[in-house]
Specification:
The complex is a heterodimer of chains A (264) and B (271). Helices cover 72% and strands 2% of the residues of chain A. By secondary structure, chain A is mostly helical. Chain B has helices spanning 2-21, 25-50, 61-81, 87-96, 98-104, 109-116, 123-140, 146-177, 182-195, 204-213, 216-219, 221-227, 244-265. The chains are: A mainly alpha (264), B mainly alpha (271).
């Protein structure tokens, strides 16, 4: 069974590998936006050396990490599953002898791995050329960062899966999707670190699953969390994955029950 | 006479597009609100964290909002009027062969392309830009003079023309690659982001590029210095804020020249 999922992941990886020129062009845009975001944060800091736990170097590293994760987590949107519901292709996928959630998760892991290598790592390399980036303060932080990256993908996938299921109920699911991706972009701390928001907004944001997408990894990488809080941060990500995955299964069951596919 | 006929034809064709989009009224308004939200979060986020910093490059939130409001309003207006030249849209027209059909009709080619698409939902982004612009006026207390009042619409229209030039230049590239060029996105979407902040926060080589090669700084930053009565930290001549119409319409004309070269060289994809 595991071999099936591994094969699905590998195929997705290869499928995404095919878009080489698109990747290159996307990379240039990512790098340009990354440079702008670094300029803006440096200018915002001005003469201040530390703001809300971030040094200037930390803030620049933050922009590098977020630009690296942009394609990996596809923060700008993901429509694959939604399209299969809208076209009815989902009927074939549902009848496969694999778990439907894991079927998509395996493919998303392949996609994410490909985009991490093709889009994420080159961005980080470019950043390292132009800026002196901060490094994780201890090997523990570095290891926790890697675990956190994987957990972030799981949370992101469960959220995208759940949002895509809206296509069972509404023909305007694209609008639902666009709104959902926008919400995630802001509340995850992609646009600005969660710690920079006013305390009340920060407290509310931390009650949602979204900081688990971006903010958690950044805070681990920069050493803003450490000690027991570090394990707590990882546990938080795991909790949100399990919660969203459980909810997804419930919603999927309800959607499938409602689904009527025209025979052909 | 001929111009009058062209304009009547244009408005008739655009009217058809608009009516078609209004058929699904609820969808339209949801889309509009969604676009407004998606683009508005950028400024909301900046405003939310601004309190921690107080200023950016010596500029207050209200002053940055002036740049942002001008850029977003002008870009969204352009995005609506120049929908047909949007490289993403135009490259499809070329690939599908719809562009070939236009070449055969006895009507002005740019007119047909302007009339081929008109995305009314861009009003969502425009409204968002105007709201932030209005917000900046309540914070900055601009000392209005007749010259400023007269120059403001000129700057806005020039900025629309400038962004339009970027779309037309991007459309011209479609003749050579038959693929939309993402590099154009750097100048359009990246450009609006860059221009929403005061240019002096960027490095010198970067600023120079966006003054002398792609003159976007002359459209937004320099006029803003004039409206907000700010000194020029970069030391350009004192007439720099008034070059906006030249830079804006100059870019548009140059882009159309490039586009016509592309049209003359164009050989169909055969589809």
């Amino acid at each position: 069974m595991l071999a099936t999922y591994a094969a699905l992941a590998r195929l997705a990886f290869q499928r995404y590998l095919a878009y080489r020129t698109a990747n290159l062009a996307g990379l240039a845009t990512n790098a340009f936006f990354g440079a702008l975001r670094a300029y803006i944060l440096i200018a915002l800091f001005g003469a201040q050396t530390h703001v809300a736990g971030y040094s200037v170097q930390g803030a620049v590293t933050y922009t590098g990490l977020t630009q690296m994760l942009l394609a990996y987590l596809p923060l700008y949107g993901w429509w694959e599953l939604m399209l299969t519901i809208q076209t009815g292709e989902i009927a074939a996928d549902l009848s496969r002898p694999v778990d439907f959630f894991l079927y998509w998760l395996a493919q998303d892991v392949g996609r994410a791995a490909c985009q991490f290598v093709m889009r994420g790592l080159p961005i980080l390399a470019l950043y390292a050329l132009f800026y002196s980036l901060a490094l994780p303060p201890t090997p523990w932080h570095a290891a926790a960062f890697v675990v956190s990256l994987v957990l972030a993908l799981l949370v992101s996938f469960a959220w995208r899966f759940l949002v895509s299921l809206s296509a069972f109920w509404t023909p305007d699911a694209r609008g639902v999707g666009r709104t959902a991706w926008t919400v995630a972009i802001v509340l995850s701390g992609f646009m600005m670190p969660v710690a920079f928001f006013p305390p009340w907004a920060e407290a509310l944001m931390r009650l949602t699953p979204f900081p688990s997408l971006i903010n958690t990894e950044v805070e681990i990488y920069l050493g803003i969390v450490g000690g027991p809080a570090l394990l707590g941060a990882l546990a938080g990500q795991l909790f949100w994955f399990l919660a969203l995955a459980a909810l997804s299964r419930l919603v999927l069951a309800a959607g499938v029950k409602k689904l009527v596919i025209q025979g052909g | 006479m001929i111009l009058g006929h062209t304009m009547r034809l244009y408005f008739k064709l655009i009217g058809i597009r608009v009516r078609a989009q209004m058929q699904y009224r609820l969808s339209f308004w949801v889309d509009l609100a969604g676009t407004g939200l998606a683009t508005g979060v950028e400024f909301l986020t900046l405003a939310a964290v601004f309190g921690r910093f107080g200023s950016i490059g010596g500029w207050s939130l209200g002053e940055v909002a002036f740049l942002y409001g001008l850029v977003e309003t002008a870009f969204a207006t352009m995005d609506m009027i120049f929908s047909g030249f949007d490289p993403d849209f135009f490259s499809q027209q070329v690939r599908r062969g719809t562009f070939d059909q236009m070449l055969l009709r006895p009507v002005s080619l740019p007119l047909q392309i302007f009339a081929s698409e008109f995305l009314l939902r861009r009003i969502g982004r425009m409204a968002q830009g105007l709201a932030v612009w209005g917000f900046s006026l309540t914070l900055t207390h601009i000392a209005w003079t007749p010259a400023k009042l007269l120059y403001l619409p000129v700057v806005t229209v020039s900025t629309v023309a400038f962004f339009g030039g970027l779309f037309v230049a991007g459309a011209a590239l479609c003749f050579y690659t038959v693929q939309s060029i993402e590099a154009v996105n750097i100048f359009t979407y990246g450009g609006t982001y860059m221009l929403s902040y005061p240019m002096h926060i960027y490095d010198e080589w970067f600023r120079r590029f966006f003054i002398y090669i792609v003159p976007s700084a002359l459209l937004v930053y320099y006029p803003a210095l004039f409206f907000l009565d700010k000194p020029d930290p970069l030391g350009l001549p004192s007439f720099a804020p008034f070059l906006a119409p030249l830079a804006g319409f100059g870019t548009l004309l140059a882009a159309f020249a490039l586009w016509w070269v592309g049209v003359r060289r164009y050989t169909s994809t055969g589809t």
